[in-house]
Amino acid sequence: MSFLVHPLPPLPVFxxxxxxxxLEKGHGEFTPGIWISVKSSQYKALYxxxxxxxxxxxxxxxxxxxxxxxxxxxxxxxxxxxxxxxxFDYDITVVQKPLLSRCEFFGKDRKMHAGEYKFTxxxxxxxxxxxxxxxxxxxxxxxxxxxxxxxxxxxxxxxxNRVIWRDSSLIPDKxxxxxxKVCTQNYCVETEPKWSVGHTDEWQYKTHEENS
Length: 212
Prior knowledge:
about 210 residues, mainly beta, six-stranded antiparallel β-sheet, 2 helices, 13 strands, about 5% helix
């Protein structure tokens, strides 16, 4: 797990140039780049660092709405549709989950948006000496960010509960509608006071009851 910044799998992108000029100019123009890292600052959108290959420059702190993977893109979605939740903490990890590929997410615009899964960004709060002021480890509220290369040319970062996954060999064409509830439990196993092995230092320990 990294603090604040995590390296990314190299992914070619185009940067919308207005984001390089503080939204003042460059609208409709693009420059090629490669994602280098992602930054998680609590209460902010994900920030991506990009190697701008035409300039030999690293440009930091751009939201996911600043990027497309093709310049002949479709209608562009706003940032708050592409990423539903702000970052939960500064401690992050990046994983590529197995088996996942084609998918679609249900956006705030009440439309389905299809694409290809790339990787997942997740958060935690590892330093218990620092007050945890967010929900990275609160089960009912925690969300991960599945980064999706959208068919319209953009990228999105969506939680599990907004994404439907497709796989030709595993998932049928006609899907059941999930009617699940949010997990409100905090599952633990060391909850039974009658179960204890504190009386012994034997390697193959047993409780009093198991010894009797």
